[in-house]
Every structure is written in structure tokens, then in C-alpha cells.
Design a protein that fits this description.
single chain, alpha/beta, Rossmann fold, 15 strands, binds NADP nicotinamide-adenine-dinucleotide phosphate
Length: 335
């Protein structure tokens, strides 16, 4: 009997929130590796807000996932068979292997990881793409300086939780914006932020006025919409607004609403700059080494939200990102 490979494929282009019927739960035979390839069993799959953008048929930094294609996803697989000189059975490999139980790869974009140093999930989070995003977005795009005031939205998430902790390491005052009292307590407690704002409760502008009396030097934006607009009213002179993401807009069925307070950039001689983490790929090793050091000496606490299940749980798990159900990096652990 041929072994089977459960896969999640894109069945239809979603409009707004992704519906269960936009996915196809598919069963394929497990493929053998060809010459120069290796095959592996998926252990952990990354769930990222950006995946929502990959479902839309519009120009972006990556081509859209095609209808009928296996959903694109970062993951860690364990090599089971190999005809590739660089990968041996038993190796743990990070790559873009998709939402499926088994994958075959020619090794392009794949990297062996050492799971004796950190769990596989951490290579998808603090030591992976979200960690790199926090590091380069804050230090390079945000050009952070000691003593500055940093505000970060999506602060209890994969990227935001690392942004705030790096800013603290760099000697800054840090205010996090997140949904709900538990997340805010996590920020000011375990994660060491100076203050937190629950954006679901009360007036964000008023809270920002109270908590950033000297204005915001770096605003690291993960959410866009009204929160971005509120932050723009508090910019200090020569502030930097880092456009990392805009999750509040990803399920819009109407055009993205832009910030109405953008003229504060003019008044404050500030700049607003977007970035895509992949542009920093050549420097990932440098960032990963520094973040690993901070994790090792306890200055960065890693928050991961691990859902145990199978690939069939992917569609429901993905929605957690948009409901704010995750604390830290969301991953699906296939065991
Ligand atoms: P995450 O923050 O771990 O998860 C998403 C969080 O967004 C949720 O937990 C929720 O937290 C919040 N959220 C959901 N809907 C919201 C809304 N309508 N308004 C405000 N907050 C909302 O995700 P992540 O992986 O760290 O990604 C964070 C952002 O970075 C995303 O926008 C993503 O696209 C972006 N990103 C960009 C790059 C890049 O290269 N530019 C790379 C990676 C990620 P609450 O409970 O606090 O609402």
C-alpha cells in the first residue's frame, strides 16, 4: 500500500476572511526523492499573517499561491530519504515546504538546523523569519538609538514581542499595543515593557498621550488602520515609522484605508518606511546569532503558541491570527 500525504491546497481565492471552502483537503501519494533531492516528514508548520496576502491574485513581493497548489508555508521537516549530498536521513531542515505531511526538495532555500540548541518551533519564530523581521525592522529600518521611545503594535505577537524586548535591551522606553488585559499584563510583566495599551479598551490616542509625554521616536507598525493613525499623532521630531505589516487590513473587502494623519510626518520631519525581511537574507546569520545570545542569557523570553494537530487543522488554526487568539509565534506541531 502506498503511504499517503495529506495536503492543504488552495481551492478558491478568498474574499475577506478565508472560509473553510476556500481550502481543499487533499490526499496525494508520498513522493520519493529524485536525483539531487531529499524527502522529509513535516514536524512543525509556521502560521503567518502574510499568508493571507499570498492568497490574493495581485502583485506583491511573492507570486500568489495558485488555485490547486499546496499552500505555501515555512516549516521544519525531518529528512527520511535523500539523494542530495547536503542532507541525510535524520537531519532537521528549515524551508518553505508547504502545508503537507511530507515534502520533497532540491535543497534550494533549505537550511539544516540544530534542534539540540533550540526547539524546531523557535527556528520558525524568534530565530526565524519573525525574529529577523523584528531585528532588522527595528535596528536597520527604525535606526533605533539608546534612550528613545518606541511604540510597537501587535506587541504580544511573534514579531512584536521580539521588537519590544530588543528595544529594552537597547536602553529604550517601550510601550506595547495589544488586545486584551492578559496580553498587556504579559508585556509589562514577563516581557519587561514599560507600559501597555489595550486597544480594545478605551481611547488609544489618550493613552498614547499619557504614556509618551515626549512623543514617539520609533513606531513599529504591525497592524495599520486606526492604530497607525493614532500613533502618527504622537510623533517626536525626526521619528521613524516602520511599516512592517497591517493585519487589520488583510481581510478587507474594501480598499485598504490609509492614514489620515500622515501630515504629521511633514510637521515632525519624520519618515515612514516599509520593508520586506527577505531583503536581509544575507545578514540572517548575524541577527540569529545575536538573538540566540539574548535568549541564552535570558534577556529575550521566547513566546510560542503551539497547536498540536494535523495538517487538516491548518485552516482553523490560521484564523487564530486574525482573532488574536495567539500569544507569540503561532505554529502547528504535527508531532
Ligand atoms: P502575530 O502578531 O503573532 O499575530 C497576529 C496578531 O495580530 C494577533 O495575535 C492579534 O493580536 C493581532 N491582530 C489581529 N487582527 C488585528 C486587528 N484587526 N487590529 C489589531 N491587531 C490585530 O503575527 P506576526 O507573525 O508577528 O506578524 C505581525 C505583523 O508583521 C503582520 O502584519 C505581518 O504581516 C508582519 N510581518 C511583516 C514582515 C515583513 O517582512 N515586512 C515579516 C513578518 C511579519 P491582538 O490580540 O493584540 O489583537
Amino acid at each position: 500500500m502506498t503511504a499517503t500525504n495529506r495536503q492543504i491546497r488552495l481551492a478558491a481565492r478568498p474574499s475577506g476572511t478565508v472560509r473553510p471552502e476556500d481550502w481543499e483537503h487533499h490526499t496525494a501519494p508520498v513522493a520519493e526523492p529524485g536525483p539531487g533531492q531529499f524527502a522529509g516528514r513535516t514536524r512543525v508548520i509556521s502560521l503567518d499573517p502574510a499568508m493571507r496576502g499570498w492568497l490574493d491574485d495581485r502583485p506583491s513581493y511573492l507570486p500568489p499561491v495558485g488555485i490547486g497548489e499546496v499552500m505555501r508555508a515555512g516549516s521544519v521537516i525531518e529528512v527520511t530519504a535523500s539523494d542530495h549530498p547536503g542532507f541525510q536521513p535524520g537531519d532537521q531542515v528549515l524551508g518553505t515546504f508547504g502545508v503537507q505531511e511530507y515534502a520533497v526538495s532540491d535543497g534550494k532555500g533549505a537550511m539544516k538546523i540544530d534542534t539540540s540548541l533550540a526547539p524546531a518551533s523557535t527556528y520558525l519564530g524568534a530565530l526565524g523569519m519573525p525574529g529577523m523581521t523584528a531585528y532588522f525592522g527595528l535596528l536597520d529600518v527604525g535606526a533605533l538609538k539608546e534612550g528613545e521611545t518606541v511604540v510597537v503594535s501587535g506587541a504580544a505577537g511573534a514579531v512584536g514581542s521580539i521588537v519590544g524586548q530588543i528595544a529594552k535591551i537597547k536602553g529604550c522606553r517601550v510601550v506595547g499595543i495589544a488586545g486584551g488585559p492578559e496580553k498587556c499584563a504579559l508585556l509589562t510583566g514577563e516581557l519587561g515593557f514599560d507600559a501597555a495599551i489595550d486597544y480594545r479598551e478605551g481611547d488609544i490616542r489618550q493613552r498614547l498621550r499619557e504614556l509618551t509625554p515626549d512623543g514617539i521616536d520609533v513606531y513599529f507598525d504591525n497592524v495599520g488602520g486606526d492604530i497607525l493613525d493614532a500613533a502618527l499623532t504622537r510623533l517626536a521630531m525626526h521619528a521613524r515609522v516602520v511599516i512592517c505589516g497591517a493585519i487589520s487590513q488583510y481581510n478587507n473587502t474594501t480598499p485598504v484605508s490609509g492614514p489620515s494623519n500622515y501630515l504629521s510626518l511633514l510637521v515632525r520631519r519624520a519618515r515612514m518606511e516599509g520593508f520586506v525581511v527577505f531583503d536581509y537574507a544575507k545578514r540572517y546569520a548575524e541577527a540569529a546569532q545575536e538573538i540566540a545570545g539574548w535568549i541564552g542569557d535570558g534577556r529575550i523570553k521566547v513566546k510560542e503558541h503551539v497547536v498540536k494537530g494535523g495538517v487538516d487543522d491548518f485552516p482553523e488554526t490560521f484564523q487564530m491570527l486574525f482573532r488574536g487568539d495567539n500569544v507569540g509565534k503561532l505554529v502547528l506541531d504535527l508531532g
